[in-house]
């Protein structure tokens, strides 16, 4: 019982704030500018592409200025690649099995690349998420080049905001030097094991979702990736539990937003407003942050591909349980090389969990 209580207390701990509001504001502005442009021009349904570009600003949160910009540029390339792949799959009306295969390949390669680059937050989650979410958008809503351009332009804006913040900080205190920390990269054997986890978990989640006849199997595959960025088995289980608790709390908020069927303009504004609290709490309490991030994702999905709200809510809940279950199972079964010990010590705990 003592061990159970300790785990419950750990799930409830909210970390201390460390200038979270400044970072969250940078990220929110990165979405607000293109988001408002889309809403004013009458295209709030295209905000999904801007959201994934704005994710660029989430990278390098606690890193030195130069390293943060470098890592954000690398993350932007991965995000744009994910969106471009999703747009291509949507354009050819790829079937669900093709989507599963494409996502598994992207996740496996993305795991190796993100480990090599030592990106923070770790793992290919956001690229996977971008691919699956965009692939589910019906073709013809916008020209493929325009969709990718919205994502790329938003990512570029986030880079400019980050650069401006770094320059302003140096002007304010020219003698201040951010500590340069060498990137910690896993051993090649650990990188391959980590990639194998992503491939296995996402395959299981994708196939499970399809066999159960659940729409939006991309949500199950994305959820499967969530626990895998943590450094040890216990942390992976906690990550998965946070994902489930936070998602279901967020679904309650989503119901309040979607069931009255407000205008697309209001929903577009909600997407922009929800990004700030998402990033504000992401490093402090993952489940709490998901209470905001889940409705953000659900609303932008409904804008891009309108559906029956209750069906969307049910699919999201079921897919999350399937994906997290697959991710935790694989994380506990596939360990790093060694005698019963997890050798992920070079794959550090993420600055914050993958969303």
β-sheet strand percentage? under 5%
**What structural class should be given to the helix and strand makeup?**
mainly alpha
Residue share in helices? over 70%
How far apart are the first and last residues' alpha carbons, in Å? 30 Å
Assign an overall shape. Answer: globular
Number of domains: 1
Assembly state (oligomeric): single chain
Count of DSSP helices?
13
Low-confidence stretches: 173-182, 338-355
Number of strands: 0
Rounded to an integer, what's the Rg over CA atoms? Answer: 19 Å
Domain Integral membrane bound transporter: 207-330
Keywords: Membrane, Transmembrane, Transmembrane helix
Pfam families: FUSC_2 (PF13515)
InterPro entries: Memb_transporter_dom
SSE inventory with pairings:
Elements: H1 2-12, H2 20-40, H3 47-54, H4 65-91, H5 96-117, H6 125-135, H7 144-172, H8 188-211, H9 217-225, H10 233-258, H11 264-282, H12 286-304, H13 309-333
Helix pairs in contact: 2-3, 2-7, 2-11, 3-7, 4-5, 4-6, 4-7, 5-6, 5-8, 6-9, 8-9, 8-13, 9-13, 10-12, 10-13, 11-12
InterPro entries: Memb_transporter_dom
Subcellular location: Membrane
Transmembrane segments: 74-91, 97-114, 145-164, 241-259, 265-282
Labels describing this entry:
355 residues, transmembrane, disordered C terminus, Memb_transporter_dom, transmembrane helix, mainly alpha, single chain, globular, membrane, FUSC family protein
Structure overview:
The chain is globular, with a radius of gyration of 19 Å. It has helices at 2-12, 20-40, 47-54, 65-91, 96-117, 125-135, 144-172, 188-211, 217-225, 233-258, 264-282, 286-304, 309-333. The two termini are 30 Å apart. The protein has one domain. 71% of the residues lie in helices and 0% in strands. The protein has 13 helices and no strands. With 355 residues, the protein is mainly alpha-helical. The longest helix has 29 residues, at 144-172. It is a multi-pass membrane protein. Keywords: Membrane, Transmembrane, Transmembrane helix. Its main location: membrane. InterPro entries: Memb_transporter_dom. It comes from Rhodococcus daqingensis.
